Amino acid sequence: MDKLKYLIYIIIVVIITSCGSSKRALTHRPDATPKREFRGAWIQTVGQSRYYQMNSSAMKHYLSEMVSKLDEAGINAVIFQIRPEADAFYKSNLEPWSRYLTGIQGKSPDDPDFDPLAYIIEECHKRGMELHAWLNPYRAKTSMSNVLAPDHIYYRNPERFVQYGNQLFFDPGLPENRAYICDVVRDIVSRYDVDAIHMDDYFYPYPIAGQSFPDDNSFNMFAASQGYSDSQRGDWRRNNVNLLIQQLKLTIAATKPWVRFGISPFGIYRNKRSDSRGSETNGLQNYDDLYADIKLWVEKGWIDYNLPQLYWEIGHNAADYTTLLHWWNANNFEQHLYIGQDLKRSIDRNELGTKIKQTREMSFVHGNCYWYGYQILDNFEGVTETLKSDIHQSKALIPAYTHLHKGKPERVKKLTSVFTEDMHFLTWEHNRDKNNPETAQKFVVYRFKDKEKIDVSNADNILSVTPENFFVLPYEGGNRRYTYVVTSLDAFGNESKERKINVRL
Questions:
Q1: How confident is the model at residue 505 (pLDDT cuts 50, 70, 90)?
Q2: Are residues 214 and 128 in the same domain?
């Protein structure tokens, strides 16, 4: 990307964050097999012992198999947790290796060249899938009994942390903590080919009955100068999180403007009893209890996708899934909205298919993400087969992020059918430039029967999404004719015009 375009991106982001969203409305027609659909899977590392039981070689095999199985199940975006406790599932000079990677925080993998994040990115991208790097912003200990590495930031700046319950957190009220979290994100985005930075519902921690969050020190230092009185601590806390989200968006945009920023909040924004514009629900609230004003972030354009966790059952007394689905559909400012699905709850009540059908009937919902992803790997109650044969029977492309860039990459050139002694394949030329996100970054291969109408809008015709400039063809006796179509996708998901070729197989 040239410097002029880079500056334009930064200016646009600044305008977005100051004046509200400039995003285009993102709508679609209901489709049982949509061509564009986010299909994510959360893979958490916090609390997992499976990784530190593997050496580097075994972990490579496991990660490769993991991504392959998710791909076969129709997943096109892996949301992989890389920072569970201010530590790292990747090589970092800012934070120690994660305890969930090696069993001891700060201990490096046995192979000094192994980088789990770089490896899983490669495994995803070679299959045409995305990798969203998932970070917990504030948590430093999941349990006070956990031993931190000697070089953990806590030991350099213990005054910047607070204990709440049995956990340790960065104090969200301190500007230096926001700056540090942005430094971590900048480091990841600058060094790794991630498609997005992802955070879930852990901002201010979930409230503990009878315990107030211990932020008196930061409140006394900053609240008054920021215009907040003693009775406005909730508003002050929300502003702290707002500042973090805004700063993170600017950080990502200034580093790689094509990398997205997504949030998966708790599924209730506000109940109607708290706000007449809220949902007909009766549960914990993002706005009031976690101090996360997700609607504001969407409206201002500080995030690129919203993925609320609608983990409840259809007909749930306090938080009915269908009620919440309709509420988010009507309250997301017509932008990228995906729905978080609880696999076990949905399968236990035989609701998964119904829930996905409902999301596809919404005008402004453009996909789903599954918790938790390991259940797909384990084929829990046959869910993997259900995804393959029914819910994800056709491949799907990630929805295009046209608010970041709207255009078409150049179409491929010199699409050719090549025979060798060993194989028959298609090959093509392209204008890919890894540093220019507007050029081709991956390719879509479609197939049509002889004399069949060319329709690239139909997901059933997609054979492959690949970063390679070739595609191996099957051999069917040499008596069948097909038309193959190849298009290119840029880093934002925009698709080029088609290039076609007739082939006898």
A1: confident
A2: yes
Closest CA to 337 of 310, 357, 367: 367
Which residues, 6 or more positions from 215, have their beta carbon under 8 angstroms from its beta carbon? 162, 171, 172, 173, 237
- Beta bridge pairs of residue 36: 397
**pLDDT, tens digit (0-9, with 9 covering 90-100), for 152-193:** 999 999 999 999 999 999 999 999 999 999 999 999 999 999
Angle of helix 233-255 versus helix 175-191 axis, rounded to 10: 30
Same domain as 422, residue 386: no
Range of the domain at 495: 413-504
β-pairing, 130-135 with 77-83? parallel
| Model confidence, pTM | 0.94
Q: Please give the single-letter amino acid code of residue 215.
A: D
Provide the residue count of the chain: 505
Cα angle vertex 34, ends 31, 36, to 5°? 140
Token pair listed for 331: 């309250």
Give the pairing of strands 442-449 and 462-466: antiparallel
pLDDT digits (tens, 9 = 90+) for 392-422: 999 999 999 999 999 999 999 999 999 888 8
